[in-house]
Amino acid sequence: MMPGVAALFDCLPADWRDGLFLGRIETPQGPSPIMVAGGTAYDMSRIAPTVAQLVEKLPVSPDAGENLGPLDQLDLPLLSPVDLQCVKACGVTFALSAIERVIEERARGDAAAAAEIRGRLEERVGGSIRAVSPGSPEAAALKAALIEDGLWSQYLEVAIGPDAEVFTKAPVLSTVGPGAEIGIRSDSTWNNPEPEIVLLVSATGKTVGATLGNDVNLRDFEGRSALLLGKAKDNNASCSLGPLVRLFDDSFTIDDVRNAEVELTIDGPEGYRLEGTSSMNQISRDPLDLVRQTLSEHQYPDGFALFLGTLFAPVQDRDEPGRGFTHKVGDIVAISTPRLGKLVNRVVTSKDAAPWTHGLTAFMTNLAARGLLNAQEKEPA
After folding, report:
1. In terms of DSSP bridges, do strands 304-307 and 86-91 run parallel, antiparallel, or are they unpaired?
2. What is the pLDDT of residue 114?
3. Do 102 and 81 reside in the same domain of the chain?
4. Domain limit, last residue, from 160, 191, 209
5. Which of 3, 85, 241, 276 is the most buried (most CB within 10 A)?
6. Domain total for the chain?
7. What is the DSSP letter of 176?
8. What average pLDDT does the structure give for the chain?
9. Is 211 strand, coil or helix?
10. Rounded to whole angstroms, what are the CA distances from 250 to 34, 100, 238, 256?
């Protein structure tokens, strides 16, 4: 384990012995899907060699797999908890934050001017900006008012318009897990983590659980042009997930996602510390509506993971007053919420992060060599 990265036990959910979880481990033979129930880990590779296949078999009894013992005593590293799933992400899902940022920019830091602009907009809309629902008649009225005031932007279109921003964050098998290094481009000078909750969705469109994710973002690239979103979002080691997917059951539901408080800490090598929170109850589009929009005219035969967006935008100065925040190599980023645990990664450049070499060909070759693709599957208990 790299210096400064928390031990597995410190990253588990507060009630990890009670919930039902899904994940992946690195065994000496290769990656294997696991389930965790009652605090015990089970290797499920003989039941389903991939997480994508295991999701399609749910509900399945964990003890149909190989008992690996207590999770907190597991000496095999956790990988990103997804494998063949497509990794999708939603942006600008906290409309109030986006609108307020536009207002603040127009007001140039003058609180009284910001209040005047806000009041003028709300008078035209006929209600509070906070209550505006994306795609509603009130949102259309707000859009007209913003355009009239010269405040409209492409970001506000996806914040309050009918269509959510949904993009592909990372190639299949390229995500990194807890304890791994996360990468920022070596030519980026303004970047930040994005602490988010990530939903796991089956091939049939059923939302089966949730985990934590870091949707690493390069603000300088995306700020220059929205057409640089690919370079801003998809680089080597630029997407982390984990530590485990918590499966929905009677004790953990989509409402726990809707009401989660996602906390972020960044500890820099020079002693710098930043803390922040993303409150999911302020999201403008319901998580299940984001799933619906992702599926509207697309199929995902291996399922997908969906980042839900974040309210957090770091503005705390790091080096020079007024320059705000940007990462430094060696930063330790921790994203946490009690029911999902803690995702901890250390920042390096994408060039220096471990290269992504285990793609689909290598993955399938490994499964075949282990006899998992042709193994007689056991019937779930």
Report:
1. parallel
2. 75
3. no
4. 160
5. 241
6. 2
7. B
8. 90
9. strand
10. 21, 37, 34, 11
